[in-house]
Amino acid sequence: MTSCSPGGAPDLMFLLSWASHALMAEHAAGLAELGISPREHHVLLRARSGGLTQRQIGEQCGIDKTTMVVTLDQLEATGLAHRRPSPTDRRARLVEVTAEGGKVLDRAQQIAARIQEDVLASLPEADRAALLRSIEQLVRGRLAGGGPCGPGSRPGF
Fold this sequence. Notes:
Arc Repressor Mutant, subunit A, 2 strands, mainly alpha, two-stranded antiparallel ribbon
């Protein structure tokens, strides 16, 4: 792996992409034992609080409409979530996590926490909080808009 641009300076885009890919692969492998994908994990996580439509959850997760429908179809087929009509908008569907979905989500959260702890443990303790704080500042600030194509252009899980 190379982490430098031709001029020798670190290449932020490459480094973040590489780290994201490696972390997502580890996340997917950890969730495989539960029979869910990282995308399904994130949808369940957003839906757990209740009251959100599939569109709202898709926007929060950076998932396009078609992929969101397929994801929810899969979650419903496995009994982890279900959709019901919104009482305020007949075109919208609210997403609810089932009791079984809640159990799977709890286990998925444990797996994700274990992976995060393991990854961060490879850094000196003083750097861990700074890394998380810096990345959070970037995604809440300069990188919050999803780039020149707008918020919907972020790749989904």
